[in-house]
Amino acid sequence: MRKTTAKHLTNDNEGIAAAVRFLNDGRLVAFATETVYGLGADARDGQAVARIYDAKGRPQFNPLIVHVQDFDTAQRYGVFDAQAAQLAAAFWPGPLTLVVPLATGHGLSPLVTAGLDTVGIRVPAHPLARQLLAAFNGPIAAPSANPSGRISPTTADHVLAGLSDRIDAVLDGGPCPVGLESTIVGGAPLALLRHGGLAQSDIEALSGPLAAAGPDIRAPGQLASHYAPRARIRLNAMHASADEVLLGFGAMPCDLNLSARGDLIEAAANLFGHLHNLDARDMPIAVAPIPNTGLGRAINDRLNRAAAPR
Ligand code: TXA
Ligand code: MG
Question: Does residue 244 sit within a domain?
Fold first, then answer.
């Protein structure tokens, strides 16, 4: 991975303009929200989203929250039923993430939702996050800006301590006023998926009692065969047999290649799209070996789940 030292961007027009340039270039910018600092990338750009997982060292593709500037924009990406729309009207902007079905023509990278057909969306309240979203004028995918397994950052210094050599910039909005991640709700019946900065009782005052999250929605990445292709998958294949299609990696003859130049970031960006595409051909899928380093671990984690017996 490219060695960088993150630029420290200040809370002014120049800082925001620089952050927007990085995002437009497919680079990573951590930014203040009222909950915790997010590690942002253009949610439509698969390689930029792949860099988020790479920078965090996440061993799995967990779905990321998409940040947008207002409810109208949110409806480009998600479908809000009456109950979700009511919660959005009451609590956005603010520390609430709503998990809703993906909208038709959403244009988000499938890596953002980790291949799910739902998306977590939030309109942050922090003035700097709002200015950034308005200036960028696009959806920003952002998990908390900490290395995987470490605590969430609530100052720009926390971000730099954890990720300084792995991201392009941090947009400093001072200490996060809430200091806890957003509360996440979703599903039908509506369930509490994660406790956070908005109290459950405040939500329930509007929605009525929230259901407890089932195992499938609470930890989508953890289910062995979650969102597996219909086709049988054979891993570590050097060649396809006559009745298989081959998903390649590196320079090799194959039906579709995750990255002909052997780039794991490009491979991650292509993973879900290529699997969907090959699955539509109704033949078993043979998959070339993927190095188990860096982002390769998350790619192999997902391929192993897709190949698990169902
Ligand atoms: O306050 C926050 O929510 C911060 C700031 C930056 O917005 N973000 C944050 O993101 O905490 P992260 O990636 O650390 O946590 C996102 C959580 C994950 O546990 C993920 O599983 C869940 O949101 N999530 C996102 N999309 C989902 C989906 N479609 N279905 C179920 N869970 C989803
Ligand atoms: Mg987190």
Answer: yes
Q: Which atom of ligand 1 is nearest to the CA of 37?
A: 6
Bridge-based pairing of strands 183-186 and 191-194 is antiparallel
Q: Measure the CA–CA gap between 214 and 255, rounded to whole angstroms.
A: 38
Nearest CA to ligand 1 atom 5: 38
Residue of the CA atom closest to atom 20 of ligand 1: 63
Domain with 297, as residue range(s), is 233-307
Whether residue 188 is contained in a domain is answered as yes
Q: How far is it, in rounded angstroms, from Cα 164 to Cα 7?
A: 9
Contacts of 260 (CB under 8 A, 6+ apart): 248, 250, 251
- CA-wise closest residue to 228 among 166, 179, 192, 279: 279
Q: Of the candidates 178, 212, 246, which is a domain's last residue? A: 212
**38 Cβ below 6 A of ligand 1:** yes
Tokens of 57: 């060292």
- Clarify whether residues 98 and 167 are in a common domain: yes
Instruction: Please give the chain's pLDDT, 310 residues, in tens.
Output: 455 699 999 999 999 999 999 999 999 999 999 999 999 999 999 999 999 999 999 889 999 999 999 999 999 999 999 999 999 999 999 999 999 999 999 999 999 999 899 999 999 999 999 999 999 999 999 999 999 989 999 999 999 999 999 999 999 999 999 999 999 999 989 999 999 999 999 999 999 999 986 555 444 444 444 556 788 999 999 999 999 999 999 999 999 999 999 999 999 999 988 998 999 999 999 999 999 999 999 999 999 988 987 7
> Which atom of ligand 1 has the smallest separation from the CA of 39?
6
Whether the CB of 126 sits within 6 Å of ligand 1: no
Ligand 1 atom having least distance to the Cα of 62: 21
